[in-house]
Amino acid sequence: MATAPASTLPSHVPPELAVALPLYARKRVSECPQETLIPEMHATLPPICYVTNIFPGDQPGWLVKSYEDTMEMLRDPDNFTKNGMGKWAQNINENWLVIPTEADPPIHTDYRKALNPSFAPQKMSALRDQVRERAQTLIAKFKDRGSCDFVDEFSEKYPINIVLDLLGLPQERMEQFLVWEKEMLHTNDWEVRGNAVRQVKNYLLEEIEDRRKNPRDDYITRIFDFEVDGRKWNEDEVFGHCFNLYLGGLDTVTSLLGNIFCFLARYPERQAELRENPGKIVLAVEEFLRAFAPVTAFRIAAKEIEICGQKVMPGEYISVATPVTGYDPTYYENPQEIRFDRKAPHISLGGGIHKCLGMHLARLELQIAVEEFMKSLPEFRIKDGFDVSYFVGNIQHVPELELQW
């Protein structure tokens, strides 16, 4: 673990707590972080440390590594704000919020009241056949070939198909959407990130304006009827919510799928367990969510506060490091063991008032993907001669995954 020069640290940060972590290097590595880097962090780091490269652009923030300490923060929106947390608008010198992700109470409550019915479990369950058809269509293109590029041919396309259907956006624009997504989420270059944000914003504003002039039976059109504080949503709120769905719908499930299927390909006995007992898949997905959570998000200290005995100043970032909390040995028994009967809670889809809006859809997508691969393909493995690499950063993922059967 690299340490940071004391001369660059704020005065309240003890030098012994400052570190640059390999988990946030934003590069490809050959070792599986869930098997090496993350357990090492739990073994060697204090409960809280000041990580100089934890935010994109190698910006600093506090890493809280335990489940309980993180949950305490998630339950306290008064002291830990999300307002502007992702720096999406700030990066292009604007001030809109990603809705509801960057909103705080009390207005956050009104946003969720308007949004929750559209993402309720029964609503998402009604999409089951549509989601399954999307998975089956993609698998059919390669199942008789004996191999596939899992990321390119399945995990990138599958969730975006579903989100584009939901929003009423054209499937033929998928390749461009994926380019923008990678430029926003998988780069350490703030200029590249900002240019992608502008392009996504311009595109979504065009679609929103088109719905105002030509209403359709789709989700974007329905947003115009949402209310907050007794009024219709304004332009920034409509756009901010569309931007949220674009961000959340395009990447998280893709990253989870890559990690899950890499694990199943590397450990055929675990794959066989699900093939022989498909009834385990629902609980297995919850364990996969714990073990392969990809996202390190953040809260911002709203005032001077103490966490784990350390002073944190207003405006400083504190991590919601789901890849790390899922391996907390003080909360989970043998966290490195992937157990399909664990039934343990996790915060991989958020916690507190900011529980992921799309969590029921994400679970459905993951369950159906595993089910359909088990039904449609024989035992698969890492393709002969292919070396798996892992991207470490704010979104842990497998950039490429060649499978064969």
From TrEMBL:
<protein>
    <submittedName>
        <fullName>Cytochrome P450</fullName>
    </submittedName>
</protein>
<dbReference type="GO" id="GO:0004497">
    <property type="term" value="F:monooxygenase activity"/>
</dbReference>
<dbReference type="Pfam" id="PF00067">
    <property type="entry name" value="p450"/>
</dbReference>
<comment type="similarity">
    <text>Belongs to the cytochrome P450 family.</text>
</comment>
<dbReference type="InterPro" id="IPR002397">
    <property type="entry name" value="Cyt_P450_B"/>
</dbReference>
<dbReference type="GO" id="GO:0016705">
    <property type="term" value="F:oxidoreductase activity, acting on paired donors, with incorporation or reduction of molecular oxygen"/>
</dbReference>
<dbReference type="GO" id="GO:0005506">
    <property type="term" value="F:iron ion binding"/>
</dbReference>
<dbReference type="GO" id="GO:0020037">
    <property type="term" value="F:heme binding"/>
</dbReference>
<dbReference type="InterPro" id="IPR001128">
    <property type="entry name" value="Cyt_P450"/>
</dbReference>
<dbReference type="InterPro" id="IPR036396">
    <property type="entry name" value="Cyt_P450_sf"/>
</dbReference>
